[in-house]
Amino acid sequence: MYRIYLVEDDVIIARSIKKHLENWEYEVQCTKDFSAVTKEFAEFAPQLVLMDIGLPFYNGYYWCSEIRKISKVPIIFLSSAADNMNIVMAVNMGADDFIAKPFDLSVLTVKVQAMLRRTYDFTETGEMLTYHGVMLQVAEAVLTYQDKKVELTRNELRILKTLMENKEKVVSRDTLMTKLWESDCFVDENTLSVNVNRLRRKLADAGLEDFILTKKGIGYRLK
């Protein structure tokens, strides 16, 4: 089931779109706090965003550019301001498509289906894991925290991805080593320690001090 994040302040329109897309078996979340769109986006981790232009606090262009700092997820603008200037502005800010209001819900559905098909059917899905404000874009091997980006090596990505998939659970050293080398054969544990310590330093530089905790004699977990 694809997740769609709907940024629309007209309650009637939002409910109508949500109900219609849910009938097509999409999971739809409407914005609750229009001053915290990026936060809600990160927590929901959608595969597509539907964005109005005229919004409380900041307009859709602003939020589109903010989302583009952390994700390549497709964004479709929905707006009655469908003149050439606004369409060009939307595309320049990172939008993938523009649908003029008023629109037929069947047309919206076809556009959504086409965008999801083009984006995900023939490419690796843009998996994004989130935990306490930390966003991990798996395909790009990039961690984002408070506008800071951290480029990860393959081993660092595998370690962090495994820990974030298990949230606050302790992950054993054996499990992490298996993930690192995709093998059950013996590997020197010092190598794992070196990778974890290097990852910790990168996280600390991004403001995530002690993000990875050690459970002595067992393994690691997230703070």
Walk me through the structure.
With 223 residues, this protein is α/β, with parallel strands linked by helices. The protein has 2 domains: 118 residues, Rossmann fold (3-Layer(aba) Sandwich), CATH 3.40.50; 95 residues, Orthogonal Bundle (Arc Repressor Mutant, subunit A), CATH 1.10.10.10. The protein contains 8 helices and 12 strands. The longest helix is centred in the C-terminal third of the chain and has 17 residues. The protein is elongated and about 60 Å long. The chain starts with a strand and ends with a strand. The relative contact order is 0.10. The mean pLDDT is 86. Keywords: DNA-binding, Phosphoprotein, Transcription, Transcription regulation. InterPro entries: CheY-like_superfamily (IPR011006), OmpR/PhoB-type_DNA-bd (IPR001867), Sig_transdc_resp-reg_C-effctor (IPR016032), Sig_transdc_resp-reg_receiver (IPR001789), WalR-like (IPR039420), WH-like_DNA-bd_sf (IPR036388). It holds the Pfam family Trans_reg_C. It comes from Roseburia amylophila. This is Stage 0 sporulation protein A homolog.
